[in-house]
Design a protein that fits this description.
Strand content: 15-25%
CATH architecture of the largest domain: 3-Layer(aba) Sandwich
Helix content: 25-40%
Number of strands: 16
Amino acid sequence: MKQLFKYVFLFTLKISAQTNTETYQFSKDIAVKIEKDTLAWKYQMGATDYSINGYYKQALETWDKNGRPARKISKEDSLYFTSFRQKNAKDYIINRSKDEKIIIINEAHHNNRHRIFTTSLLQGLYDNGYRFFGLEALADTEINDRKFPVMESGFYVKEPQMANMLSEALKIGFVLFEYEASDGKNGKEREIEQAANIARLVKENPNSKFLIHCGFDHVIEGIPPSKSWERAMAGRLKDETNIDPFTIDQVYYTEKGDIKFTSPYVLMANPKKSVILINGAGKLFNGGETNDQTDCRIIHPITEYENERPDWLLLDGKRKTYTVPKSKITEYPVLVLAYRKNEYEKNGVPADIIEILNKETKTNLILDKGIYKIIIKDKNYKIIQEFDAKIK
């Protein structure tokens, strides 16, 4: 039943993408759509809509509505956990990547933070020899020639942080590739075909290194929760290539919309930066002494906000804050979208989106250096203002 739900959900996302003329929406319009929806999985769909539009907190809170409180940990679990020390996750992964050939990292599709973290790894991994970047979410055979994602590049690619990750990878020099299974496959068949698609490219490029960004449980090397899969993509890829991938989970130990859904381990660690945990014997913490699902689990800190935006959007200072001039806003509410130069006209994906509800709302976009076309839409989604902005 769980697997059937996932496929119905994915099918519904495809239909939604086809019938909704406005991809980027005001938060109130998303809320109304969720309220009117009668589908059992409406909260998963709603969380995805919120995430695509950059409403991070609402995405987490909406996803929680079909969730369960976090599992309590035993005294033994707590003692085991405290035997590990924190290491900066980004630094550890980049350093370890020198001795790896395949790195697989996952995301929760409604959590934009996970894409930001993978983005933060790209330059370091490229410097260490990684050249191929495979994404479950990608469905675009022309992206390496075009050099930027477009609205048709994949359902989740319409989310600005996913598109920013792809743009950054292309700018650095990665070759992007898609590996999703063809339509009509059941869960087991999907895992088999995903692994086979990646393995084919690995075998064709025996001297290359690969980064794979997947969703949820596809990262698992051991036995996945969905028993019908038998093995997830990562485990099957290991079998097909005889290469042991370094598998990294971002989903388990990341904040939820409500603290009661957040793992106690996140609260116990209380890190200021994203961390992995390692003990004196060099073992990485992955949830339990006998857990063999992944090599490690990242613990992301609880989000702090700067000018009403998640602090991690700034990519440790790599990105800049751009304040939309109040003189450009002639009415409220408005939706503001920032597109990289020459991409808006070619159906590109915005680099950032904010809604400005009234005069008191902060008007800060967070962008990489460059020239952008700023589009402002009114409550009816009509464009009322266009101008260029240079981020230095």
